[in-house]
């Protein structure tokens, strides 16, 4: 079970709060520009790791094989799931199963994160601790607002709660008295202060087309390893890099992060080549003109914002298996996961089995999907997203 009390956000070392005079003097973004490179103070984000481990479904890395067409549904010609070529990529947040306890935990963690710089001398943290803080604050705010608006289908159309403004442009946060939007954090705090392209991979924008949401919080001690892992996953996916007959197509996220690549095309190509696997390297070869036009804003959930079975076919209710390491898809009930989500689960199961056969997966996660009895409302349990494993890819 999650520990929702004192562990919500506890600095690993307690230190003095900023004075009222200092807070009044710093009423803009300059408040967040100082850091102490010699500081050994750390922040414990374990509570956020526990939540993420419970609500994020890990998807295997892309094989760079596009999904074609859309699956055939049972009893209906209507398919409301994601039918793009990228639909089997990126980790997913199981929004349709998040219950009141998890909503409360997510909201309380976000509030604690907003309040943190008022409780300590934020400028006395080293830059890695600060970077992890901004990633975790940004990501929890994205998930909280999508959760409050769910069901959603395309995140670029999502509005901030209580506002008609874009999720990314609205001033939805107040950090130490400074109103901040998500774009403020990403474009006006992190990008200018951390001159490293890897920082773009720490921001989960809620869509399949963005960098992965990890099943662990970012931490100061691990933040660059975590970013390297996310960079490798993203660049070697179709939503990151692909080609057509005459162009090298890359994600629109690189255009958005242009400031991180001073000589844009040269620096970007070198960056992609650094993380490219054999398949991606072959596509980077040659002199194809570069286009930042790979766009995918479908929500990174399991059901493409579809609740229940309406228009998606009939429930699957036959008996299951006694083997805890095998997912029997016939036991999945449409009241728990709409049929639009069953196709993703089928793909995940087949990919895990393929990796096991090829000896490329050292551990197997058990994915338990609760089957309801008489209650139509499904409560999420901590075991849903799988037994926790050490995982270098998050």
List its traits.
mainly alpha; 394 residues; 3-stranded mixed beta sheet
Would you spell out the secondary-structure blueprint of this structure?
Layout: E1 10-11, H1 20-25, E2 43-44, H2 46-55, E3 56-57, E4 92-93, H3 100-119, H4 127-149, E5 173-175, E6 178-180, H5 182-193, H6 223-235, E7 241-243, E8 248-251, H7 252-256, H8 264-275, H9 278-284, E9 290-294, H10 339-357
Parallel strand pairs: 8-9
Antiparallel strand pairs: 1-2, 3-4, 5-6, 7-8
Care to describe what's here?
A hairpin with a 2-residue loop joins strand 5 (173-175) and strand 6. By secondary structure, the chain is mostly helical. The protein is globular, with a radius of gyration of 21 Å. The chain is 32% helix and 7% strand. It has helices spanning 20-25, 46-55, 100-119, 127-149, 182-193, 223-235, 252-256, 264-275, 278-284, 339-357; strands at 10-11, 43-44, 56-57, 92-93, 173-175, 178-180, 241-243, 248-251, 290-294. The protein has a three-stranded mixed beta sheet. Strands 1-2 form a two-stranded antiparallel sheet. Mean pLDDT is 77; it is low at 1-27, 309-335 and 362-392. Helix 3 packs antiparallel against helix 4 (127-149) and helix 4 runs antiparallel to helix 5 (182-193). The chain contains ten helices and nine strands. The longest helix has 23 residues, at 127-149.
